[in-house]
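re the bet — no i am not wrong, look at it urself. input seq straight from the record:
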Amino acid sequence: MNDNPIQTLPPQPAMRYKLVTNEKAGGATYTPKILADFVADEITKLMEIHDRTAPLRILDPAVGDGELLSSLLARLPASESVEIYGFDTNENAVNATRDRLIRERPSAFLHIEAGDFLEFALNQASPSIEPSLFAGNSFQTFDLIIANPPYVRIQILGAEYAQLLAKQFGLAGRVDLYHAFILGISAVLSPHGVAGIIVSNRFMTTKAGAAVRKAVRRSLSLRHVWDFGDTKIFNAAVLPAVLLAAGRNGDCILESHFTSIYETHTPTNCERGSIIDALQVDGVVAIPDGRRFNVRHGLLNDSDIWRVATDAGDEWLRAVDAHTWRTFGDVGKIRVGVKTCGDDVFIRKNWNGEVEAELLRPVLTHHIAAQFRADMAKSQRQILYPHETCDGKRRAVDLANYPHAASYLERHRKTLEARTYVLEAGRRWYEIWVPQDPDEWRRAKLVFRDIVEKPCFWLDLEGAVVNGDCYWMTCHRDQDEELLWLAVAVGNSKFIESFYDHRFNNKLYSGRRRFITQYVEKFPLPDPASPFGKLIIQKAKTAYQTTAIGDRNRLAGEISDLVWKAFGLPIEKIGG
């Protein structure tokens, strides 16, 4: 918690807090029993068994259908005296959970409230605010907390609410409601308590999650993290993780264990009965539905992002570091492509003279992506780019100088003015929302796709504009543009797949990796002046000039093998 004065959260419309998906409005996916049982098992393994005079205080800050509380109670002796506390902003969920727990644990003392846990957590630190119906002590803590917080970008809950949560919980950037829940839970967990929290795994590797990662390490004794990756244990697009933590009680900080499980295509003879059973394996394991997973166990490495650290993996990364000359981020600036927020207006195949040729530029999208060189034959799309540079500053062009473009844009004025955020930012109604620097497009650039199973990097030497479904990089200095050939070779190599998995291990479904700025800027480059570096650059240029797909693929394989050698590593055969 920060030292800012606590403020009362503004009233919020009732919403169904739980794992929110892109399903129908108001839809939600509650915790599956297999995962609820897993979290409950891990909590009860860690909880201290000792004589107590007071009842065991249990909290679920977003009760949903009560599955988590039900699983946890089933693992506690019937003789254990318990007080159960719970919140949910969905009153129907609260009533259903209350009825369920009365049936399952009639002796329990229930405090299930239709309300906002975050407000409760903040109020605990402010005696001036009217207490919740939970109040009984000046500051309440809980012995056991089991939670699956809502996964909702706080910005969609309203600007005032979002700003207050961000301020009170020390959040910034693209934050999610579950970030605040994690910090709220850490504030109300007793020093000897245990918490099991189901969250999205995104906060472990994103810049927006950095504040949460630091706060968790500062305020909780984190014992184990399970990254469930692309197991699809939820029927939702979110990739879950489980945090098991104890309260801070003055004891020495123990090592935090980390387990990751991601789908692979690598063959195996090892079989287990379920995803949860597979967690006991170290290596590749198959489950009855035919899927295979790579399970890795180690310690939590949180030097910048959270990942599994093993002796072999750390040794592998040290070998890479010893042969790294610079990183991508050292030699160039990585940006996302333009975002028009009106592609139907700005991007077309056939313009037929409707606008002046001076305002049209070729556009690169993921549809024409290919390693080393884009397949321009697949698309003849051009972008209407109404921006220019004057005295070093970007500005919108004066449509008075382009009567055809002015006429065309005027016909679409209603559509473009519907982008109210453009106007509110003091921009012209016909501008591209994120145009980037017009002068940069003329320079040689490295372009790459965002979400792919296999890396796809290519060079553009034609001054094209990159669309927002791709990222791009130019060198800090024009004289360093030779390094782009080295970068495109490393980016397309099998080595970079292995580096990504060792260094970040953040995948989406079906093994797809995210090639975003915060990862790619850390990609290593070997010494361009070394024999391997020179040969890699030479072959990358040849691959760019090669039009026959078979010949280019052969060259790509040769380049990939050279990259392994440049980093002092044996060539790996990556199966998935």
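see?? The first strand starts at residue 56 and ends at 60. told u. also DSSP finds 19 helices and 25 strands in the chain. so pay up
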